[in-house]
Amino acid sequence: MNDITWEDAFCGEGNSCFRLGTDSQGNAYIAIVGQEDRPLTDSREALRALILGIKEGRADHLL
């Protein structure tokens, strides 16, 4: 796997902790804390769109 630079963990209420990471090839990663060896991956642009969508409230119905 590529050399991933992970951000500090983000934890919501309970056990919902995850980490965001990027690599030098322009990929973005999301992983559950402790499972960084099995991340979801996509482009940085896709990760940016996901985060902006969440901030805009497009995922509020999932909460």
Question: Can you characterise this structure?
Answer:
It is a single chain. With 63 residues, the chain is an alpha+beta fold. It has one domain (5-58). The chain has one helix and five strands; from the N terminus they run βββββα. The longest helix has 12 residues, at 44-55. The chain is flat.
**How much helix is in the residues?**
10-25%
Number of domains: 1
Report on the biggest sheet: 5 strands, antiparallel
Rg, Å, rounded: 12 Å
* Mean pLDDT over the full residue set: 86
The fraction of residues in strands falls at 25-35%
Q: Helix tally?
A: 1
Organism: Streptomyces echinoruber
Protein name: DUF397 domain-containing protein
SSE layout:
Elements: E1 5-6, E2 10-11, E3 17-22, E4 27-32, E5 40-43, H1 44-55
Antiparallel strand pairs: 1-3, 2-3, 3-4, 4-5
What labels describe this entry?
single chain; 63 residues; alpha+beta; five-stranded antiparallel β-sheet; 1 helix; flat
Give a summary of the structure in a few sentences.
The protein has one helix at 44-55, and strands spanning 5-6, 10-11, 17-22, 27-32, 40-43. The protein has 63 residues and is of the alpha+beta class.
